[in-house]
Amino acid sequence: MDHLDQLEAQSVFILREAYRKLKPLAMLWSLGKDSNVMVWLARKAFLGRVPFPVMHVDTEKKFPEMYQFRDEYTKKWNLDLLLGYCPPVEEMDPTLPPAARSAARKTAGLANMIETHKLQGVIAGIRRDEQGTRAKERVFSPRGASHKWDIRNQPPEFWDQYATPHEEGMHIRVHPLLAWREIDIWRYIEREGIPLVDLYFAKNGKRYRSLGDKDITNPIESNASTLAEVIAELETTRTSERAGRAMDHESEDAFERLRVAGYL
Amino acid sequence: MSETLTATTVIDPIDRDVALEAATPIVIVGHVDHGKSTLIGRLLYDTDNLEDGKVAQIIESSKKRGLAIEWSFLLDSLQIERDQGVTVDSTRLPFRLGDRQFVIVDAPGHRQFLRNMITGAADADAAVLVVDANEGAQEQTRRHAMLLRLIGIRHIIVLLNKVDLLDFDEQRVAAVRRSVTDLLGQLGLEPALFVPASARDGDNIASRSDRSPWYTGPILTEALAAVPGADSRAGLPLRLPVQDVYRFDDKRYVAGRIERGEIRVGDSLTIGAQGSVARVASIERWQAPQRDFALAGESVAITLEPDVIPDRGDMLFPPSAKPVKAARIRARLFWLRQEPLRVGETFRLRLATAEHQVTVASIDSVVRLDDLTEQAASEVPPEGFAEITLAAAEAIQFDVFAPGTADGRGVLVDRNQRIVGGAPLLGPADVAGEHNAIHPSGGVVDAAERRRVKGHSARVVWLTGLSGAGKSTIARQAEQLLFSQGVDVSVLDGDTLRMGLCSDLGFSEADRHENVRRAAEVARILAETGQVVVVALISPLAADRALARRIIGDSFDEVFVDTSLSVCEGRDSKGLYAAAREGKIANFTGVSAPYEAPEKPELRIAADAGSAEAHARELTEFVLGKTGRG
Known about the structure:
Oligomer: heterodimer
Protein name (chain A): Sulfate adenylyltransferase subunit 2
Radius of gyration of chain B: 31 Å
Catalytic activity (chain A): sulfate + ATP + H(+) = adenosine 5'-phosphosulfate + diphosphate
CATH topology of the largest domain in chain B: Rossmann fold
Distance between the termini of chain B: 91 Å
Shape of chain B: elongated
Organism (chain A): Acetobacter nitrogenifigens DSM 23921 = NBRC 105050
EC number (chain A): 2.7.7.4
Strand order of the largest sheet of chain B: 7-15-11-12-14-9-8
Family (chain A): Belongs to the PAPS reductase family. CysD subfamily.
Helix content of chain A: 25-40%
CATH class of the largest domain in chain A: Alpha Beta
Number of strands of chain B: 29
Radius of gyration of chain A: 18 Å
Number of domains of chain A: 2
C-alpha cells in the first residue's frame, strides 16, 4: 500500500465507524476540493453510495461556479442534499474582525442545521496541516449542547477507539481527512479523477487555492491551469494554503475564537 | 501574515515519488522543560521544513515577549498555550528528512495531560525521549518511558539535551547516560541510541557539533533516518474484525479493516465466537481495480458464502490460527481517569470493533513511579500504571498484545462512554494464581458450623422466566412451605430489588446485567450466613445467569419457570405486555428484548399448566433435596 492507499483505508474506516455509531449523521459538503474528496471516500466506503445526507450550509455568497457544481453533482452522485442558510452578518458578534464576523455566519447556519435535524454526527473535511488550531483536533471531536469545542478537555483518542455521545444535545464532529495534507488531496484527486470547481485552475495568471465566500477569499498568483500543474506548483510552494482566507490573518486569536464557538 | 502556524512539507519535484511513501510517525516525549518543543522547532528549522515567513514570525513573537528566539513558539499555535507557556495537546507536524517522510508527534510533559499524550503517541513507530542532561530522569521521564513500554514502542532514541550545561564533558554525559540506561532497563526497554545535544543551539541535531568532538555516533537527523519502518503485518495469520454489515440492493457486505494477514477470494474463515465457517465469495471495491486479494491495512467489504450474518465485533480468522479465548484476562493498564480504580468496577472493554462487559476482578500490582517497582495495592491511582485481571460474563476471543500489531489493544470505557484506560491484554488469567485478588473478610463462623446449627446447608435457587411466568408467586409460596419446615429462607424478588437496591438501574442490557450482578452478590452474602435464598428475577440473558453462577459458586441452582409467552401475555396481570406492544415500554423481555431460555436448568417447572401451589411444592421438594433435608 502506498501513502494514498493508507490514507484512503483509514478514512474509509473512520466513515464506517461514524455511520455505525452516530445517528442521525450528515456530511458537510462545502463544494471545495476537500469535501469532494470526502464525498468520494464515502462512496468508497459504501460501495458507490452515500448512505446519509450531505449538507451545504449556504452563505449565499459563494461563487456562481460553486452553485452550478452543487446542482450538477447532487444529481450525478445521487446525493441526498440538505440546504441550510446563514443568518445576516448583523446578527454576529460585533467584536470579531470583519472577515471573521462574516465567517461566523456559517457557524450559526451550521448550528441551526444541527438542531433542526437533531444530528448526532457531522462529518467535516478539516485537515491538521491547514491551520494550527485544527492540528489539535480529534478524529471524533465531541461538542457540547452549545456546540462549543472544549480544547482543554478533549477525550483521549488512540488505537482507533473514538468518543461517542453520552449526553442529550451533544454531537460529534467527525474528521476523516484530519491526517491528509494538501498535496495528498491533490494527488488523490488526480489518481481518482475527482471533479472540481474550475476556480482552482488558473485563468489570467490567477487561481484559487482555497474556496470560501467570494468577498473574503482571494486568488493567488498562478499559472497552474491543470491538475498536474497545480501539483507541481504545490511541490515547490512555501506559503500556506489558507493565505487567501482573510479571516486567518486578522488577529492571532480570531480563528481560534471562531473554532471554539463551533466553526469548522 | 497570520501568526498561526502550519509547517508544510517542502518537496523538490525530483523527489516527488518519495512523498508518496507513508510517513513514519515519531513521538517526542520527556519531562516538562527538558526541551521537547525547542527541539522540534530547531529540528524543523535546521532541516528546512518551515514555510517562508515562519521564522520571521517566531523572531517577531519572541521579541514581543522580550525573549531570545524561542523555538518552542513554533508549536504554540494556540493562544491558550502561549498564555500558559506550555504545550496543551499533542500536535502532528509533517516533516521531511532526505528521502524520508516523518510525522512528528509532540506530546506534552505536564502529567495531567497524559491522555493527550497517549492520543499522540499510540501509533508512533519510534520515540525520542528528551532528558535534560543536567537534571537527569525525572518523574515524567519515568512516566513517559513506562507509557512507551505499555503502548509497545520499541525503537527509542534518547536525546540528552542541554549538554552545554555540562560543558560537553564526556564523563558527566556518560554518567547521565548510565542512569537513564538503568532506568529504561528496569522496564525492559533498550534505547537504540543516546545523542548528546543542545537543542537550543543546534548541537548534534541536524549538524555535528564541534563542542563534542568525543561523540562519533549518529546525530539526531541521522538517527531518525535510521529508524526501522513499520513491520509488515501482511505475513501474519489473518485478523479481520467485523466493523459493520451492510445490505445494499440484494447483497450483503461484511465491512472491516484487515488488521493483519491477507484475505483471498475462496479462503475459508471462522466467524468469531459463534465459530461457523464461511468462504470468501468476493472482495468488493468501488472505482478501483478488482483484485481477488487484500492485505493488512486495507478497509474491505467482502461477501460470504454461505451468506451468514456476522455481528460487529466478530473476528474473522483462518480456522487454523485461532485467537485465545478466556473469560478472565490478565492485562496491563494505563489509567486515565482522575479518580482511582478499585476492584469490582465494571466497564466496557473495547477490543478492535468488539465490546464486552468486564469487571475488574483483581488489581495484581501497581507501578510505583519513584523507582518503577511493582507493588501490591488496593487501587490504581489517577494516571497510574498497573497489572489487573478482568473478568467477563462470557469468554472473549483475543490475541495477546504484540507491539507493532493491533493485537490485544484493549480500551476500557465507562458508563458515560468515556475512555478511561488502555489495557494491553497479556493473556488468560491463571485462576490458581489469584493470590493478589481481593480477599473478602470471611465470617469467623464457618459453613459447616452453620449447617450443623440450622440443620440444612445454604443454597441459592435462581428462578428465571418471562415477566408474568409466576416466579414471584412460586417463590413466596415456597418460602412459606420451607419456613414451616424449619428452613431459614429468604426471597430476593426482582420488583422489590428494583424499588430499593437497584432503583438507579433501567432496563438497558448493561443495567439488566448490573441488576443481575447485584442480586447475585446479595444472594451470595445471604447464603454465606447459611440461608436458603430464592431469587426471582427475569434475568433474560444466559451470560448474565452464568455470571450469577460464577459469583455464587457450587451452591447455585438455576430453575426455569417455563411459562410460554402466550400464557404470560394472556395473564398480563400488571398490564405490561399490552403497554409493551403499544410501544410504551422499551426493552420489554419477550416483546422487544430477547429472552434466552436456560438450556440445562437444574430444575424446569412446566408452568403453563397446573397451579402455583403445585409448582411451589415442586420447588420446595427440590430445595429440600439440595439442602440435605429431603
